Amino acid sequence: MRAIQMVDLKSQYHKIKHEVDKAVIDVLESSAFINGQPVHDFSDQLATYLGVKHVIPCANGTDALQIALMALDLQPGDEVITPSFTFIATTEVVALLKLKPVFVDVDKDTFCMNMASVEKAITPKTKAIVPVHLYGQSVDMEPLMDLANRHGIYVVEDNAQAIGCDYTFADGKIAKAGTIGHMGTTSFFPAKNLGCYGDGGAMFTNDDILAAKLKKIANHGSDKRYYHEIVGCNSRLDTIQAAVLNIKLKHLDAYAKARNEVAAYYNSAFAGNRKIITPRPAPYTTHVFHQYTLVLEGVDRFGLQQHLAHKQIPAMVYYPVPGHRQEMFQQFNVAYDLPVTDYLTERVISLPIHTEMDEEQLKYITRSVLEYIN
Ligand SMILES: *Cc1c(COP(=O)(O)O)cnc(C)c1O
């Protein structure tokens, strides 16, 4: 049996090696390492794929969030609502910009932000909401946008984990996650669903004014070389990474399909086990399974993780400490009551899921999990 990894980037690379190697060598030969043609091609192709007007590439998913928030001209102390149950990058940039993160709870079934919790958290100081499409499923964007628009609040979607996911509106209209809010962001970190071979990220928007602003901020606050209108930063996607992404984007839907097949195998293997809650699909979204995450009831989760480790099976807890319990945010000194976030934080475990898994591996993993739990 091939070694089991949380994500198998090497086997995936070998399947597209011929194409990727050529594209990378072409960049080396052109020596247009910064802002070369592949960067422009990739922005155009991703915009077409997502059905969004503007894609602005940048250096990583954390920068994308930071730049999107910078584009809103918020004042120190303005409030930004985000889930606590997410990767730290989502909330860290809020504090970095001297804004105040306001943590809300998530839904038990979807792991994504809970609308009632968002509504309750809105105050006159709320200027932005950052929903996170966690593990590969979209937040329920239609009610969220209704709520935000009613209060004149910006929405920046953190779509680092759900690129390619489709959200369906009540009238049947479909849009890609990340393109529904005022802005969306993503990460091309290698292990993400659309990963490059280093760091990378992008911002999306249908708003021409915001697009121009994002571009300017990512380029030292400038549209004209050596003339700087506003304080920005330097955040670029390397040409080599764009060349890799141009190839991988063509495979993205097939990659999502492979991930869904893995999830379906796990679902049926664990069906009916009363200690294991498998991912619950929401009717308004597809799932691209960035992670396959179980909720375990009455199981020693770290014991299971250790049992699996002895059998050379990796399993991860995403994330062991939620935002509202992180030391870096204690300065905000707010006593949060987020029972679902705390409940999930104690019970989730993610199993290996990627585009290169075979049945032998899946059989071995599911058998090993059940052996411990039953
Ligand atoms: C990975 C990730 C990010 C950050 O992306 P980087 O490219 O690593 O900076 C932000 N938010 C979420 C939800 C992520 O999973």
Automatic annotation (TrEMBL):
Keywords: Aminotransferase, Pyridoxal phosphate, Transferase
Keyword Cell inner membrane: no
Domain of life: Bacteria
Alphabetized GO MF terms: pyridoxal phosphate binding; transaminase activity
Active site: residue positions: K192 (proton acceptor)
Positions where N6-(pyridoxal phosphate)lysine occurs in the chain: K192
GO BP annotations listed: polysaccharide biosynthetic process
Family, similarity comment: Belongs to the DegT/DnrJ/EryC1 family.
Entry protein name: DegT/DnrJ/EryC1/StrS family aminotransferase
Protein species of origin: Haoranjiania flava
